[in-house]
Structures are given as structure tokens and as C-alpha cells.
Write a structure and sequence with these properties.
This protein has 837 residues and is mostly helical. Among the domains are: 166 residues, no CATH class; 207 residues, no CATH class; 51 residues, Herpes Virus-1. A hairpin with a 5-residue loop joins strand 1 and strand 2. The longest helix has 172 residues.
């Protein structure tokens, strides 16, 4: 398949057939094409002959081939990854089956000891095999269930106290070991994550290196990147050939010189015998054979070491697998188990001591609980007294609120009454306005009557000018202030005259008709005829003239009286009709307003009464609601305080229990960790010494092999391979040495931590003594340099020197505000707390 993917590289260089130089370019359309690509110049024959277009198809093929090589390498890596994942999955399945088998056997053994289902309790559902795929999630819960079942079995049979104690101690030891293994698992997971990250980076680097190697191996890429590559290769080849010829000439010259300097047995120069040449050739052949034999021996030793390393790894895997499933007999017969048993005995004694301490703590806890109950009782009494006092104050406040609400109701009633008074006043104002309007109408009527009287007087007097002025005054409707003042003095006389005129008007309107007016006109016409006849009979002109003037004056007076009477009649008719209509409307409006006002007053009084009743009911309901809300809030606050107090007590009890259990586990884990770290430290020292010895031996062997091989085969490829192998072995040994040194440092750090935590076994070994010295040195760094007693917890921001708080406060109080180290002055604001994490 891979061979089919490959393409012949004969077309990749420029010295092949015409097919290798043919290039395929994309067809470029003009501006009239349908795809919208326009104004792109097409390649011409002159451009095809340029160097940039030569080898384009070969470059493309090589790029595709390099991509295929990369894909094939990625496929190989993916297959290896899939195979490794399949193996891991199968291994996990085997472990899960072994774990399930072990759990089934454990449940069967527990069933033998406790067959009845009632005695299992709630642990029965927990101990059953899980149905889901997550086998590791409920492990802790199931272990706790097994522990409780074992305790119940041990409590049921008092004769098995010793076995129960041993089982319990073993369970505690296994729990401590489990905790330690969890810690190791966490560190291993972190290390695995780091290694996976490094592996990913190395894989990326490898891919980049492979791509670079493929590009460097491509002739087309070389031609593109280095156009003069062939000429440079020819020059280099010519230089190498010239150097080889010069070396051959030098060797031939040396051989000729050596041959010229050979002597024959008689002392003269001559040709060496064939026997001597054969002896010398055999000596050289033996030396070469010896060197080859030694090289092969080195290769065999390297193969043996590689085989031994492989077998050692397999043995380590088998030991690791056996370690995962260690038989009980081997565990019981091991020295470590006996040591653990002794440690368990010590731990049991410590547990008894802790049990006594626990009993003491429980007694003290009981005393504290009694004190807490007494204190809570006293607090409740004080709170009840305070609540009663607050309730009394609340009742007083409610009485004050009721009094204030009564005052508010009184004020609202008074306000309502004032509003009613204001309404009455407003109605009175409206009535006054109506009366003023009637007064204005009355005044206007009086003015009209006065004008008519003036006109009648002027007509009777025959004063035409006064008559025209009175008539013009009516037309202009001007206010004559002087006339009004005069009329105010003559008001009673005018009223009497007006009454007389009204009676005359009524008499005229009732008696005078049109026929009477015609009769009167005919009478006047008769009188006129009589006057004419009278004038016709007069003889003297002066008498006639005088009579005519008298008659004209009489006629004018009569005409003016007639006009005044007609105007007065017309005005009186208009005024009477208007006044009667206005009076009727005013009377109706007044009656309606009086009726509406009475109805509105009754309605307002009724609504005011209902509103007062509704307000009283609302305020009473609000007072009841406020009282209920206050009682509810008080009850909620009391319940919340009691709930919080109960939660605090429960949390404190849980924290104390957890701290006690954690202290027991931590003591066991720290003791075991200290011993393990000590053992690891010794093993790391031994491995470091062995690695140093191996490194020295390897360096010596490498130097010896390099010297022999350099002397025998200076230009052979075996030298490079052996040097590469030795370099790889040296690097591997260096890595092992670094790993051992790192493990040693970690072991030293862990031993120092364990020694600092437990405070015991500091002087057992020299490494522990070094750890103690290091701890003392670190403590000296952390202590205050001024008193050398307390730890540093305060920093001077100005100079960044650290001391204890007591020393700095002493200098601040004594006003010696200078740094004890550099004597730099500082202020109080420069003193800040220091937190070490």
C-alpha cells in the first residue's frame, strides 16, 4: 500500500525526460468569464521558460509525497496509541475483575459470620456489587460499611476481642497505608501529567524535525532554496576527490620512501622479502582481528546489558503485579509485617492512651455542655425579660399611636367643617355676585327711565337741543357721573315719578289703541284745518306771523312729546320684557341652586360620617396587623437565633470529631512516612553510589574503547555507532543519576518534614542529623534578627526589612524609629504585617 502511494522521483530532478519538466497551471479566465475573475494576465511561452516555472509540478508532487509520509507516520503513531490504550483497557478490566472477585469473597465471608439479613442493617445495600460502571466511586463507602460490619461481628462475640483488636488494628494500618497510597497516587498522577505534557512537546518537536528532514532530503526543495546547489555539490565533490588524490599520493610517496629505505641482509638498500611482508601483514591482521573481537565483545556486552535491562523491567512489572496482589502468607512472613505489627502494638497503646484522653475530653465536653446549658438558660431568661420590656414599650408606643390617630381624626373633622364653611362662603359670594348683577340691571333701568324723563321734560319745554342730547346720551350709552350723583339725591322722587309713569303706561297700554290714535290724528288734523282757517281769516301779517310761531312751537312741542312718548313706550316695553324674563330665570336658578345645595349638604354629611367610620375601621385593622407583624418578626428572630446556635454546636462537635480522627490518622501516617522516607533515603544513597561506580566504569570503558578504536579504525562507521551508544548510555546514566539525586533530595525534604512534624527520632542517622541542622538553619532565618526569639511577622515598607511585632512596637513606643538592621528612619505608617505562606 505504501509502495503504491510512492511516486517515482525520476521526474523530480531537472535531468529527466520532458514529462518531468511539464507543468500544469490553473486555467485563468478573462474579464468576460462568468466567475467574475478579471484582468489576470495569462502565462506566456516566455514565462514558461523562466526558472521560477520550472520544476513546479515536481515540487508539488514532492510536497504531496511529504504529506503522505507525514500521514503514514501519524497513522503509525495512532496505531501504537490505540494498541497501548487497548492494552491499558484490558489491564483495567483484569484489575476490575480481580477487585470484583475479591469483594465477592469478602462479602461471602461476612455472610458466613452474619447470615441473617436483619443483622446487616443499612450496610447490605452498600456491600452488594454495584450495577454501574463506576467501580471506584463507592470504594470508601463500602470500606466504611465493611468496617462497621466487622465491629458489629466483634461486638457480638466477646471472646474474639483479641482477633477483633488485631483486625481493627490491621484495618487502621491498611487505612493509613491507603491514605499514603492515595498521596503517592496523586503525586504519580501529577508526574504523569507532566510527563504527558513533555511527551506531547517532544512529539511536536519530532514531527517538526521529521518535516525538516523530509524537506532537506528533497532535491527540488534544495533547488528552490539553493539554486546553485548542484554547482556547490560538484565543487565539494571535486574538493573531496582532490583531497583523496592528494592523500593517496602522500601514502604512495611514503610507501616509496619506505621501500627506498629498506635494506637487504648485506646492508644495501633493496627489496623486502615476501616472508617479511607476510609476517608484517599477519601481525597487522592479528591486531585488526583483536580489535574487531574486542568491538564485537563490546557489542555483545551491550546486547547482554540491553537484554538484562529488558528482563529487569519485566521482573519489575511482575513484582509490581505481585505487589498489587500480595498473598497473606507472604505478608505475614515478611519482616515489614512484623515491624508493622510492632508498630501496631505501639499504636494500640497510643490508641488506649488517646482513648483515655478522649474520655477526659468527653468529660470536659460534658461539663462544658452543662455550662453551655446554664448559660443558654440565663441568656434565655435575660432575653425573655428584654422581650417583656420591649413589649411594654411597644404597647406604650401603640397607645401613643392611637392617641395621635384620634387627634388626626379630630383635625380631619375640623378640616371638613372648615371646608363646609368655605363652601357656604363661596355660595354666598355667588349670591352676592348675582345680586350685583341684578343691581346693575336695576341701575340700567333707572338710567333709561331718567333719560325718558329728560326727553319728556325737553319735549314739554319745546327744547329740541335738550331732546337731542337726551336721545344722543341713550345712543352713546355713556356714564354721566354728575347725573348719577344728581340722581342719587333725587332717587325717591324718581321712584315716585317712575311709579306714576308706570301707572300711566299701564293706563295707556290698556286704553289707547290704534283706532284711538287714528281718532286723535283726525282730531289733530281738524285742529290743523281750524288753524289754517284761522290764519286765512287773519289780516295783519305780524299777527299771523306771531300766531304761526305760536302754532309752530305748539306743534313742535306736541311732536316732541309724541316722539318722547313713542321712545318711552318702546324702551319700557323692551325693558319690561327683558326684566321679566331675567327675573324669571334668576328665580328659577335661585330655587334650583337652593335645592342642589341642600342635597349636596346632606350627601356631604353622609359621606363624611361614612368616611370617618371607614377610617376608624382601617386604622384598627392596621394596628392589629402591625401588632401581628411585630410578633411574627420577634418569633422569627428567636427561632433563627436558636437554629444558628444549634448549627454552631453541631458544627463544633463535627469539627472536634473530625480533628480527633484526623489527628489519629495523621500520627500513624507521619510515623509510617518517616520510616518510609528513611528507607528511601538509604536506598537512594546506595543507588547513587552504584550509579557513580557504573558511571566511572562506563567512562573508563568508553575512553579505552575510543582510544583503541581511534587507533585501529579512525574513519570507520563503527566508531560513530559505538560512540553514539556510549553517549546514549552515558546520558541514560546521567539521567538515572539526576533521578537518584532528585529522589534523594525529595527523601531529604520528606524526612525533614516528618522530623519537624513528629519531633522525634532526629538523631538516629547522619542524614536525619543533617535534616535537623537544615531545619535549625531555616528556623534561624525565620526568627527575628533583633531578639532571636520570636518569628518575623512585621515588615518595614521603607527598607523592606522584617522583624517581630514586639520589637517594632517597642521602638515605636520609645520613639526610636530606626530600623535595627540598616538604621533607616521609618514612620508608623511604614509598619505593615508580614504573611508567610
Amino acid at each position: 500500500m505504501h509502495q503504491a502511494l510512492k511516486r517515482p522521483l525520476s521526474a523530480l530532478d531537472g535531468s529527466s525526460s520532458e514529462d518531468a519538466t511539464s507543468t500544469k497551471r490553473p486555467t485563468l479566465t478573462s474579464k468576460h468569464s462568468s466567475n467574475g475573475v478579471a484582468d489576470i494576465p495569462l502565462a506566456t511561452d516566455a514565462e514558461e521558460d523562466e526558472p521560477a516555472y520550472k520544476g513546479l509540478e515536481a515540487f508539488r508532487k514532492e510536497a504531496i509525497y511529504r504529506r503522505l509520509l507525514e500521514a503514514r507516520r501519524d497513522l503509525g503513531r495512532a496505531e501504537q496509541r490505540a494498541a497501548s490504550l487497548t492494552q491499558s483497557w484490558e489491564h483495567s478490566q483484569r484489575i476490575a475483575q480481580d477487585w470484583q472477585l475479591l469483594w465477592t469473597l469478602l462479602v461471602e465471608d461476612l455472610t458466613k459470620f452474619q447470615p441473617s439479613a436483619e443483622e446487616w442493617g443499612p450496610e447490605r445495600e452498600v456491600l452488594l456489587p454495584p450495577t454501574d460502571h463506576n467501580q471506584l466511586a463507592p470504594v470508601q463507602v463500602r470500606c466504611d460499611a465493611v468496617h462497621s460490619v466487622l465491629k458489629r461481628i466483634a461486638a457480638r462475640d466477646p471472646q474474639n476481642g483479641i482477633e477483633a483488636a488485631s483486625i481493627s488494628s490491621r484495618a487502621d494500618a491498611l487505612a493509613a497505608e491507603s491514605a499514603q497510597l492515595r498521596v503517592q497516587l496523586t503525586s504519580a498522577l501529577l508526574e504523569g501529567k507532566r510527563l504527558s505534557t513533555q511527551l506531547s512537546e517532544l512529539q511536536l518537536s519530532l514531527q517538526r524535525a521529521e518535516k525538516r528532514a523530509d524537506r532537506l532530503a528533497s532535491l527540488t526543495v534544495r533547488r528552490v532554496e539553493r539554486p546553485n546547489w548542484e554547482e556547490e555539490e560538484r565543487r565539494r565533490q571535486a574538493a573531496e576527490d582532490a583531497q583523496a588524490r592528494a592523500e593517496a599520493d602522500r601514502v604512495a610517496a611514503e610507501a616509496q620512501h619506505h621501500q627506498d629505505n629498506q635494506v637487504v641482509p648485506n646492508g644495501l638498500p633493496g627489496v623486502i622479502s615476501q616472508h617479511e611482508l607476510d609476517a608484517e601483514r599477519e601481525a597487522h591482521s592479528a591486531e585488526v582481528s583483536e580489535a574487531l573481537a574486542e568491538a564485537m565483545m563490546r557489542l555483545d556486552e551491550a546486547d547482554k546489558l540491553r537484554t538484562e535491562l529488558t528482563s529487569t523491567r519485566e521482573t519489575a512489572e511482575e513484582l509490581r503485579a505481585e505487589l498489587e496482589r500480595v498473598p497473606d502468607e507472604r505478608v505475614l512472613a515478611s519482616v515489614l509485617y512484623r515491624d508493622l505489627h510492632s508498630h501496631f502494638t505501639t499504636a494500640s497503646e497510643e490508641a488506649e492512651r488517646l482513648g483515655k484522653s478522649l474520655a477526659t475530653v468527653e468529660a470536659e465536653n460534658l461539663t462544658l455542655r452543662e455550662q453551655l446549658l446554664d448559660q443558654s438558660t440565663s441568656s434565655n431568661d435575660a432575653a425573655s425579660a428584654q422581650i417583656d420590656e420591649l413589649q411594654t414599650l411597644l404597647k406604650g408606643n401603640e397607645a401613643d399611636v392611637a392617641r395621635l390617630r384620634g387627634q388626626r381624626d379630630d383635625l380631619q373633622a375640623e378640616l371638613t367643617e372648615r371646608r363646609q364653611r368655605d363652601g357656604v362662603k363661596s355660595s354666598q359670594h355667588e349670591e352676592m355676585k348675582e345680586l350685583l348683577n341684578a343691581r346693575e340691571a336695576r341701575i340700567q333701568t333707572l338710567r333709561s327711565e331718567v333719560r325718558r324723563v329728560h326727553m319728556i321734560i325737553a319735549a314739554r319745554a319745546g327744547d329740541t337741543e335738550a331732546f337731542q342730547k337726551a336721545k344722543a346720551r341713550e345712543a352713546s350709552d355713556e356714564d354721566d357721573v354728575a347725573l348719577i350723583e344728581e340722581l342719587q339725591g333725587r332717587l325717591k322722587a324718581a321712584e315716585q315719578t317712575s311709579a306714576d309713569l308706570r301707572r300711566q303706561l299701564e293706563a295707556r297700554s290698556s286704553s289707547t289703541t290704534e283706532e284711538e290714535m287714528l281718532v286723535r290724528a283726525s282730531a289733530l288734523q281738524g285742529e290743523l284745518d281750524a288753524l289754517r282757517s284761522l290764519l286765512d281769516g287773519a289780516g295783519d301779517g305780524d299777527v299771523v306771523k306771531r300766531k304761526l310761531e305760536e302754532q309752530e312751537r305748539a306743534t313742535t312741542s306736541i311732536r316732541l312729546e309724541l316722539d318722547a312718548s313713542s321712545e318711552a313706550t318702546k324702551a319700557l316695553c323692551d325693558e319690561v320684557d327683558r326684566l321679566s324674563a331675567a327675573f324669571a330665570d334668576a328665580e328659577k336658578l335661585a330655587a334650583k341652586n337652593v335645592h342642589d345645595v341642600a342635597k349636596l349638604e346632606d350627601k356631604m354629611l353622609r359621606l363624611t360620617t361614612e368616611k370617618s367610620k371607614a377610617d376608624n375601621k382601617y386604622f384598627a385593622a392596621m394596628r392589629a396587623k402591625d401588632a401581628l407583624d411585630n410578633e411574627r418578626r420577634t418569633a422569627l428572630r428567636t427561632a433563627e437565633r436558636q437554629t444558628k446556635a444549634l448549627e454552631r454546636y453541631a458544627e463544633a462537635e463535627k469539627v472536634l470529631s473530625a480533628q480527633l480522627v484526623a489527628a489519629e490518622k495523621e500520627a500513624a501516617v507521619r510515623k509510617r512516612a518517616m520510616e518510609d522516607q528513611t528507607t528511601k533515603l538509604i536506598e537512594a544513597d546506595r543507588e547513587a553510589r552504584l550509579l557513580r561506580v557504573r558511571e566511572q566504569d562506563a567512562l573508563k570503558a568508553k575512553q579505552h574503547a575510543e582510544a583503541r578504536l581511534a587507533a585501529l579504525f579512525p574513519q570507520q562507521a563503527e566508531d560513530a555507532r559505538s560512540a553514539a551508544r556510549e553517549l546514549e548510555q552515558r546520558q541514560r546514566l546521567e539521567r538515572q543519576l539526576e533521578r537518584a539525586q532528585r529522589e534523594k533530595a525529595e527523601a531529604l525534604a520528606a524526612a525533614a518534614a516528618a522530623a519537624a512534624a513528629t519531633g522525634t527520632n532526629r538523631g538516629r542517622r547522619s542524614s536525619t542529623a543533617d535534616t535537623g541542622m537544615q531545619v535549625d538553619y531555616l528556623n534561624s532565618l525565620l526568627r527575628c534578627s533583633a531578639c532571636n526569639d520570636r518569628y518575623r511577622n512585621t515588615i518595614l515598607v521603607k527598607c523592606l526589612h522584617t522583624f517581630c511585632e514586639e520589637c517594632v512596637n517597642a521602638r515605636v513606643q520609645t520613639r526610636q524609629r530606626k530600623c535595627p538592621h540598616c538604621a533607616a528612619a521609618f514612620a508608623t505608617s511604614d509598619v505593615q504585617p508580614l504573611y508567610l505562606q
